[in-house]
Structure formats: C-alpha cells, structure tokens
Specification:
The chain is globular. The protein has one domain. By secondary structure, the chain is mainly α. It contains five helices and no strands.
Length: 91
C-alpha cells in the first residue's frame, strides 16, 4: 500500500517532481500485490492521460509507460485499461 501512496506523490508532484515513469513503476509493484488503492490510482492516472490528450505528444514518457504497463502488468484489469487508454489516446 505504501507504494500506491508514494505513486500518488509522483503523479501529482507532491513534494517531488511529477514523474510518470516512477508513478507507473510504483503502481505496477502495488498491483502485483493486488492493492485496491493501486486500482483507484491507475484510474486517476488514466484520467490524467485523457486530460492531456490534446498535448499527449509532449508527454512521451506517459505514453511509453502506458505501453509498458499494458505489456508487463501481472493484473489483467490493468493491462486491459492501459490498452484501452492507449487506443483512445492515439485515435
């Protein structure tokens, strides 16, 4: 659960610089433990990606991490959500 909470810091820049790579790494680790908080935070991250849809080209780290998450997440729910987000963002 601590990883999921820390990922929130990196997602929103709370006392650290915003870092999507670190956010996804921490969420992936939390997801491996099937933490429900990680599921909620992944949804928030997906929502952030939607908000940045118009400028997503300027966020290559976000797109790269979504791709990596879609391939590597051990939790099917997260893999599917990442694939859906990528498809929608690229349309």
């Amino acid at each position: 659960m601590a990883q999921a909470v820390l990922s929130d810091c990196y997602l929103y820049g709370s006392d650290v610089e915003v870092d999507y790579n670190r956010t996804f790494s921490l969420l992936s680790a939390a997801a491996e433990r099937d933490a429900s908080l990680a599921a909620m935070q992944f949804q928030e991250l997906e929502q952030e990606a939607w908000q940045k849809k118009e400028t997503i080209e300027q966020e290559p780290a976000l797109v790269d991490r979504l791709r990596q998450f879609a391939q590597d997440s051990p939790v099917g729910f997260f893999r599917q959500k990442a694939l859906e987000a990528l498809a929608a963002l690229q349309s």
